């Protein structure tokens, strides 16, 4: 775009808040009760993360990869693209993340739950729980409809946050390549929500940055204690 | 105006077919007709308020929202509106306009304004054709180069399409006061029919050069972002409407703002966007009743400058 530097996020936002949340509503209604299955997968990730071990790590990676692939197709490509011309690129990035999860997580076992610090473990489990249980409630608590709930495995934000939670749990030897896409998504999502004047715009980017800080902090501590 | 008798017949039939849909309650009082202004290059009169579609019509596949936008268009046509503006940049807006036109029946006097927005000049025609299909109309009345993107490549295509009767008018657009130098240069050198730019009570830069130049060169002017996407109305809404606004038949700030814009002698029409039937009626109402004269325009601007 010419003179792109003169455009702020609010100039580029091409849909209203109402239209954005209606997207979740129509998606949820159309695919119900797939949300239960998705939450079931989320619960499995939590249980595996709690149990630990190499096989658990590989299973978590495979589950997350399926979720990222589904969000790429079912959400970005099939639905978000109807109101956002950039959604095709988002779908592509989510596919790349799914492939990275399969390669580094399921293939090379880099998601084995083995947090560097106790704080990291707590934060990882906390973030996972937040993404699975609290995140879908946030919209309804802020006055949006229940039918617009954002569920892990179905839509991008809680999927990205849960992935960051898993990365914290596996922080003993973090697979840094798995960070950029979820973190970038969280920042982009926060910017979109800010542009559409959504009250909860800060939640997702804040949680993502906290996860990055804890991951970096954990890695540094591990190095100095070596 | 119509070259093909077939096209003219189809339009007429379309209008007849559309009549019952557009006029659900027979005998209902028709609203006052909006004032019009002539397009300098042809003399054709267009209503001084049109309809934008950025954000407001980008509702994707949501049937409920699509039907709600169709109601906005119905109210717009009923109030005498004709010119609707869109762009391939506006997500699903073109498709939603097409949906509404199909649902309501396309009024014979619809003035379809769209844009070409693609870097590669060679792709211009194909993009315009895709847009036309989305609207579901035989041709656009006006195609504008969106934000001057690759205008050197697109303008020859648009002039050729105009010569071949595949569109009726050629234009260029900008907004937010960007690239006025380049706009002026194109206005001075190219045989364009329309320019589209931002102009309102808070942002009157266009008065300095572009609006006088448009008059001088006989170019029609469409004013976009009349409400600065709503921010301007939120700002004004903190104050009561001055009592003297009644002298120009203003019932709301929206009408105050629109009447200021469309009363500039160079402005052909303003294109506010809305999701609401009551707002589209109110906006069309700005093109009825008395309009401000020079003295009143100065008073309006001075009032705003003091805030
Ligand atoms: N470069 C370009 O070519 C370019 C750039 C910008 C815009 N445009 C064109 O210009 C059109 C208009 O600009 P815009 O959409 O940016 O903004 P706008 O028309 O200045 O403002 C639209 C906003 O004003 C509100 N509104 C409309 N009528 C109202 C009324 N009577 N009372 C209170 N609020 C009212 C609408 O909310 P409600 O839905 O609640 O009514 C909407 O949020 C665009 O849709 C587009 O077609 C072109």
Number of domains of chain B: 1
Structural class of chain B: alpha/beta
Number of strands of chain A: 0
- The name of the CATH topology of chain B is TIM Barrel
Give the topology string of chain A: H per helix, E per strand.
HHHHHHHHH
For the sheet with most strands of chain A, the description reads: none
Q: Secondary-structure element order of chain B, as H and E?
A: HEEHEHEHEHEHEHEHHEHH
Provide structural commentary.
The complex is a heterodimer of chains A (226) and B (307). Chain A has 9 helices and no strands. In chain A, helix 6 packs antiparallel against helix 9 and helix 7 (156-169) packs parallel to helix 9 (203-225). Chain A is globular and about 50 Å long. Chain A has 226 residues and is mainly alpha-helical. The N and C termini of chain A lie far apart (50 Å). In chain B, the strands form 2 sheets. A 7-stranded parallel β-sheet of chain B has the order 3-4-5-6-7-8-9. Residues 1-5 and 7-17 of chain B have low confidence and may be disordered. Chain B has one domain: TIM Barrel (Alpha-Beta Barrel). The radius of gyration of chain B is 19 Å and the shape is globular. Chain B has helices at residues 5-22, 63-78, 93-104, 124-135, 151-163, 180-189, 210-217, 231-236, 253-262, 277-285, 294-306, and strands at 36-38, 45-47, 83-85, 111-116, 140-145, 167-173, 194-198, 220-224, 269-270. In chain B, helix 2 (63-78) packs across helix 3 (93-104), helix 2 (63-78) runs parallel beside helix 10 (277-285) and helix 6 (180-189) runs parallel beside helix 7. In chain B, helix 4 links the parallel strand 4 and strand 5. Chain B is an alpha/beta fold. The relative contact order of chain B is 0.14. Chain A binds chain B through residues 1-3, 6, 11, 13-16, 19, 22-23, 26, 79, 82-85, and chain B through 54-56, 58-62, 65, 89-92, 147-149, 176, 178-179, 275. Bound molecules: NADP nicotinamide-adenine-dinucleotide phosphate (NAP). NADP nicotinamide-adenine-dinucleotide phosphate (NAP) binds at residues 52-56, 85, 146-147, 173-175, 196, 224-230, 233, 254, 271-276, 279, 282-283 of chain B.
